Amino acid sequence: MHKIRRWLTLIAGTMRYIGQMLWLAWQVQPVYCVALIVLEILQGIVPLATAWIIKSIIDLLTQHFHAQDPGQLVRGLMALLLIQAVILIVAQLGAPLSEFLLAELSRKLTLQVKTTIYQKINSLAGISHFEDPQFHNTIEMVATHAQMAPTQMLQNVNMLCKGAATLLSFLGVLIALSPLLALIVCITVLPQAVVQIKLSRQRFDMFFDNSPRERRAAYYGRLLSWAPYAKEVRLFNLGQYFLTRFTEMTRLILGAQSQQQIRELRWQGGLAFLSTIVTSGALVVVVLQAFSGRISIGDIVFYISAVESIQSTLSSMAFELSNMNDSMLFFRQYKELLHLQEEQLSVTQEPCAVPPLTSGITLRNVSFRYSEQQPWVLRHINLFLPACQCLALVGLNGAGKTTLIKLLTRLYDPTEGEILWDGIDIREFEPQELRRNMGAIFQDFVRYELTVHENIGLGNTDLLENTVEIQKAALKAGIHERIEKLADGYQSMLSLWMAEEKGGTDFSVGEWQKLALARMFMRDSQVLILDEPTASLDAQAEYELYQHFRELMRGHTCILITHRFNTVRMAEQIAVLEEGQISELGTHKELLERNGTYAQLYGMQAESYRA
Ligand SMILES: Nc1ncnc2c1ncn2[C@@H]1O[C@H](COP(=O)(O)OP(=O)(O)OP(=O)(O)O)[C@@H](O)[C@H]1O
């Protein structure tokens, strides 16, 4: 009973997915869907009609040996040949026409499905999913296979319609000859269907297992061929190493595909053997019937082609069923992706608007770890950042500074404790709304392989067309003069491989960092977050930036992370993070007097400058 219920649930689930796929195709282009099905049914009847014409021609010719009226024979033959011509037109035109309709539909569906996939990915406000390999497996499967699933499903349904039309038309004929034979021919399809579905599952598992391998192989390929890696790969002579790993990985992928095909071949061999026995048996029955004089010579040809057609139609229908199963499994991944929930971020149903920050930001007993299996990165942090002041966060590598910024910008939510914006828990705000009030530059800022104009303008897409604001931001970041010297100025393409022909250019790391700063200045955000903003700047650029620092930060609440202590001292408050906890808090002067970690680090850096 339990098993039956499980089967019923499985079948119901499968039917639901099939329905959803077809509904998707229908929504995209209903006329094409109907036209396709009609065309396939018409083509499905073609084999029966052709067999009937051949039978009729043979019968007419055999009768001619007994009858004496050649005129009647010619008229009969002409009529049959005319019908055959119509059938041929349907067969010849139908196939390319349905191929065209299917390709058109497929293009529209691909656009729809791909856009939906990336819309969904873009709607994930947090970043925890992006660090999960399972998520990447799903995306890869969905992006490469599932986008074709609805089209494939429609094609399967079409082929099934065509098959059903052929089958039903011939089956009626075969039942009239021998119901037992018809039954035997039909029963042989059962093992075919079971085997094909089993193979389809194995195929899906193979794709799934290959997915991380494909990702790795693609990564090694990038290491070997992309410009950012070319320098180091050559200097360390890593080409052969990555090439070997690429080849190993590709060999694994292809090996798995080959094994699957061998499995399929074995099963299909067995099925072909079964089908040969049934067809031969059916042939014997037909010949026996002819011997006993119950059927004509034309009938023999007709019945033989009926058995052959039913057999091949049933096999291809079983094959289509297995393809349907493939599509269904891939489509299920697509639906799962669309139903993916935020894991780390709590989503409030009635979000508050983000008010102007008047008092400040409070971290109350905040603790965080990336997952339950990983150690605590931040532990019991209590901190108050007054509005319109600057807080500098210092600490050794891995102390948790960037992680704290990820919590403030709601890329993650604290595992314990809360962060309050003028007393309101920031989980009450929509992440996007909160981020609109924050300008941030991370130490691993993005280098967009786009124009200079876009690289700055993307800091505020509302001002993307506003060249005046873009130039102002570039001036603030100290990069305007350099841009002016470029052949195409702000329209210069900052990419050597995305540019058309050889028109692209590239910046130095420090220039890229200035560009990222300019991007941040495009926003008049209440809170500015600078994670190592000057790490790649030369001494002069850093000096100039900090000369204007107070002016640039005026009216903003600012959080500054840096390992450069001459920068840190500008902050009103300095917090020292050690192993995920705040160990010291105060002004530069206070912390030096305290003679703790800060004073020690400051002293070490000052000494290294003096040496
Ligand atoms: N996505 C992640 N998943 C798991 N652990 C992470 C992740 N990101 C960072 N960590 C770990 O959290 C700890 C704190 O990292 P974080 O980047 O916050 O340090 P940091 O103080 O900014 O260091 P640095 O000065 O080197 O930039 C490190 O031990 C790091 O390995």
Automatic annotation (TrEMBL):
<dbReference type="InterPro" id="IPR017871">
    <property type="entry name" value="ABC_transporter-like_CS"/>
</dbReference>
<feature type="transmembrane region" description="Helical">
    <location>
        <begin position="271"/>
        <end position="291"/>
    </location>
</feature>
<dbReference type="GO" id="GO:0005886">
    <property type="term" value="C:plasma membrane"/>
</dbReference>
<feature type="transmembrane region" description="Helical">
    <location>
        <begin position="32"/>
        <end position="54"/>
    </location>
</feature>
<keyword id="KW-1133">Transmembrane helix</keyword>
<dbReference type="GO" id="GO:0005524">
    <property type="term" value="F:ATP binding"/>
</dbReference>
<dbReference type="InterPro" id="IPR011527">
    <property type="entry name" value="ABC1_TM_dom"/>
</dbReference>
<feature type="transmembrane region" description="Helical">
    <location>
        <begin position="74"/>
        <end position="95"/>
    </location>
</feature>
<dbReference type="GO" id="GO:0016887">
    <property type="term" value="F:ATP hydrolysis activity"/>
</dbReference>
<keyword id="KW-0067">ATP-binding</keyword>
<dbReference type="GO" id="GO:0015421">
    <property type="term" value="F:ABC-type oligopeptide transporter activity"/>
</dbReference>
<dbReference type="InterPro" id="IPR003593">
    <property type="entry name" value="AAA+_ATPase"/>
</dbReference>
<dbReference type="InterPro" id="IPR039421">
    <property type="entry name" value="Type_1_exporter"/>
</dbReference>
<dbReference type="Pfam" id="PF00664">
    <property type="entry name" value="ABC_membrane"/>
</dbReference>
<dbReference type="InterPro" id="IPR003439">
    <property type="entry name" value="ABC_transporter-like_ATP-bd"/>
</dbReference>
<keyword id="KW-0472">Membrane</keyword>
<keyword id="KW-1003">Cell membrane</keyword>
<dbReference type="InterPro" id="IPR027417">
    <property type="entry name" value="P-loop_NTPase"/>
</dbReference>
<feature type="transmembrane region" description="Helical">
    <location>
        <begin position="7"/>
        <end position="26"/>
    </location>
</feature>
<feature type="transmembrane region" description="Helical">
    <location>
        <begin position="167"/>
        <end position="194"/>
    </location>
</feature>
<keyword id="KW-0812">Transmembrane</keyword>
<dbReference type="Pfam" id="PF00005">
    <property type="entry name" value="ABC_tran"/>
</dbReference>
<feature type="domain" description="ABC transporter">
    <location>
        <begin position="361"/>
        <end position="604"/>
    </location>
</feature>
<keyword id="KW-0813">Transport</keyword>
<protein>
    <submittedName>
        <fullName>ABC transporter ATP-binding protein</fullName>
    </submittedName>
</protein>
<keyword id="KW-0547">Nucleotide-binding</keyword>
<feature type="domain" description="ABC transmembrane type-1">
    <location>
        <begin position="34"/>
        <end position="326"/>
    </location>
</feature>
<dbReference type="InterPro" id="IPR036640">
    <property type="entry name" value="ABC1_TM_sf"/>
</dbReference>
